Amino acid sequence: xxxxxxxxxxxxxxxxxxxxxxxxxxxxxxxxxxxxxxxxxxxxxxxxxxxxxxxxxxxxxxxxxxxxxxxxxxxxxxxxxxxxxxxxxxxxxxxxxxxxxxxxxxxxxxxxxxxxxxxxxxxxxxxxxxxxxxxxxxxxxxxxxxxxxxxxxxxxxxxxxxxxxxxxxxxxxxxxxxxxxxxxxxxxxxxxxxxxxxxxxxxxxxxxxxxxxxxxxxxxxxxxxxxxxxxxxxxxxxxxxxxxxxxxxxxxxxxxxxxxxxxxxxxxxxxxxxxxxxxxxxxxxxxxxxxxxxxxxxxxxxxxx
Length: 305
What we know:
Elements: H1 4-30, H2 39-48, H3 54-57, E1 77-80, E2 84-87, H4 104-113, H5 128-131, H6 136-147, E3 160-161, H7 183-194, H8 198-201, E4 221-224, E5 227-233, H9 250-259, H10 274-277, H11 282-292
Antiparallel strand pairs: 1-2, 2-3, 4-5
């Protein structure tokens, strides 16, 4: 307790300081506030982790390991029976072989609407139909990061499609980023528009697009990125207890995502981009797992393979 004389000496200003003291202690205990991400920082994080752009746009070394000297320089080639002979384009800002002559808005337009500056359509496996659900800010962030990469001169062949790509939906005009505090909504956003997990974990229709009846039920025939002449079949990641991951613990799901290791200790193929996912922030990984838990159980479709 303070005496009357002490209170008098303190005056009104002192009383205000005393009243604010508990708040000051709380702020000090909480530590410095996290600085807001710049567009460049956000873009770097998304491209190099959840979006895993290098999965298709970075050449591989022996064993399927990404070549860090040619990150996002294109040239990685695979064959997909549903699509054709696919070659990842050069995403670095090289003026002759990459995106150097594209504006940041050109990149955003290609991601959201699937249209290049020359008017041609961006075809699969580029997940344009999912990227159109990406927020305006995150699209701008990715464009900013790609524009600030070191240019790498690497001329690559063009993808040879089984059939001409169809135009994409042009009606989306504005999307907000879900709040991180809403774990399920943010997890769905990371796994969907950003990470496009369904792209590998859903069987395709004849036109190469995902068959929505079997979202996340696995069964898709894919090349093994460690040896593209070999094939792997994607995992069912619904909550089905037998075919899916319904019996896996959260820790087991996270280990599979970040390390490429199943609960039984066997390793996943490099088709699963754990080389990028290993850098996903813990809170984001928690959100992704929380969302995966909500996917209704579906049996893996019998594709006849």
